[in-house]
């Protein structure tokens, strides 16, 4: 991947009256990357996307696209493409007319725009539908038209604002894979906003986790899942067991459970453990719990297990041995599966 920087945010602040939506963030996005802003409602992710797109202007700080300071330029003066939640297709226009609308409106030769549109529609499997109207398409097909319309404009950056929120749940996996495939095929730099953790992990080169207008952590999907740097990230990205205890002489202690951990200081500390990394074993261990609930979820079983320092969520493959409510089980947590969090 070309590591040249496509987008750079420098100490970006956005205020609406007395409310701070984005509180001084710094970020670089490389060319050809798909970077997702992820977080709960009100965290600042959509405002950040709108700032990059030029739909909002920063209160302070600078935004660079391809090395050019665009901080005070409007959206029409930035070469960015947008794919909105609503698709915003013109219902009275055919698929082809929707796709070429942008280039033709900007003064491009209609024949050239049409040739490029047919090429893009063919690449995304819609060439045979170019004469149809949006009402004659499925939700997934409408989404692809919206993406094609943005790609045809040859933007420096392609922006996705919750693009799957209007797609049927059964189609989301297929459509998100198509979006990722198109982004990689065209080598487009993309900024993507979602509140769905699974969606973010599936499509992204990097994920930016936001909270209260600040960036909590930036990393690959694997880094965020395996090495969260805070309780918030650990809890927001997938399921996590957060255990409070103390560290003494290279041991983490919670209740009467002890496990090796680096650190000889005597301090209070918290750790995170993913439910699937807690092993149920027939052998005796120093961590015993009682099953309070057992839930079948198709490919896995989830157990809520009561211990003397609190409840743990434990996940096992569905074809493993199953345990009934009120049974006692031995649990094994390995040192390498423990993450210290702040």
Gist of the model:
The protein is of the alpha+beta class.
Commentary on this structure:
It is built from eight helices and 20 strands. The protein is an alpha+beta fold and 342 residues long. The strands form four sheets. A six-stranded mixed sheet has the order 6-7-8-3-9-10, sandwiched between helices. A five-stranded antiparallel sheet has the order 13-12-11-14-20. A five-stranded antiparallel sheet has the order 15-19-16-17-18, with no helix packed on it. A hairpin with a 2-residue loop joins strand 12 and strand 13. The chain is elongated and about 75 Å long. The relative contact order is 0.12.
Cα-based radius of gyration, to the nearest Å: 24 Å
H/E element order: EEEHEEEHHHEHEHEEHHEEEEEEEEEE
Strand content: 35-45%
Q: Which structural class matches the secondary elements?
A: alpha+beta
Beta-strand segment tally:
20
Tell me, briefly, the overall form: elongated
Give the neighbour order of strands across the main sheet: 6-7-8-3-9-10
Q: Estimate the helix proportion, in percent.
A: 10-25%
Largest sheet: 6 strands, mixed
The low-pLDDT segments are: none
The number of distinct helices, counting runs of at least 4 residues, comes to 8
Task: Look at the structure and give the mean pLDDT.
Answer: 91
Tell me the span between the first and last alpha carbons: 33 Å
């Amino acid at each position: 991947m070309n590591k040249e920087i496509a987008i750079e945010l420098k100490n970006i602040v956005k205020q609406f009256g007395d409310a701070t939506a984005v509180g001084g963030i710094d970020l670089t996005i490389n060319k050809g990357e798909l970077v997702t802003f992820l977080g709960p409602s009100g965290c600042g992710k959509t405002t950040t996307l709108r700032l990059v797109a030029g739909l909002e202007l920063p209160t302070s700080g600078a935004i660079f696209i391809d090395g050019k300071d665009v901080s005070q330029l409007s959206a029409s003066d930035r070469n960015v493409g947008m794919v909105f939640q609503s698709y915003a297709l013109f219902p009275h226009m055919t698929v082809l007319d929707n796709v070429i609308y942008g280039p033709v409106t900007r003064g491009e030769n209609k024949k050239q725009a049409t040739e490029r549109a047919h090429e893009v529609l063919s690449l995304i499997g819609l060439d045979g539908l170019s004469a149809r109207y949006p009402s004659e398409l499925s939700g997934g097909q409408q989404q692809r038209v919206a993406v094609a319309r943005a790609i045809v404009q040859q933007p420096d950056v392609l922006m996705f604002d919750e693009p799957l929120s209007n797609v049927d749940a059964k189609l989301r996996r297929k459509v998100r894979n198509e979006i990722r495939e198109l982004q990689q095929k065209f080598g487009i730099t993309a900024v993507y906003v979602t509140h769905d953790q699974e969606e973010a992990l599936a499509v992204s080169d990097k994920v930016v986790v936001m909270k209260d207008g600040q960036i909590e952590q930036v990393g690959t999907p694997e880094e965020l899942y395996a090495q969260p740097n805070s309780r918030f990230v650990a809890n927001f990205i997938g399921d996590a067991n957060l255990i409070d205890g103390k560290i003494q002489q290279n041991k983490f202690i919670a209740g009467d459970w002890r496990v090796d951990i680096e650190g000889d200081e005597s301090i209070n500390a918290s750790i995170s453990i993913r439910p699937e990394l807690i092993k149920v074993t027939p052998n005796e261990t120093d961590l015993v719990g009682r099953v309070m609930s057992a839930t079948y979820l198709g490919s896995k079983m989830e157990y809520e297990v009561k211990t003397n320092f609190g409840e743990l969520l434990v996940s096992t493959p569905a074809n493993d041995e199953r345990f009934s409510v009120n049974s006692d089980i031995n649990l094994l947590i390995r040192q390498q599966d423990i993450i210290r969090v702040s």
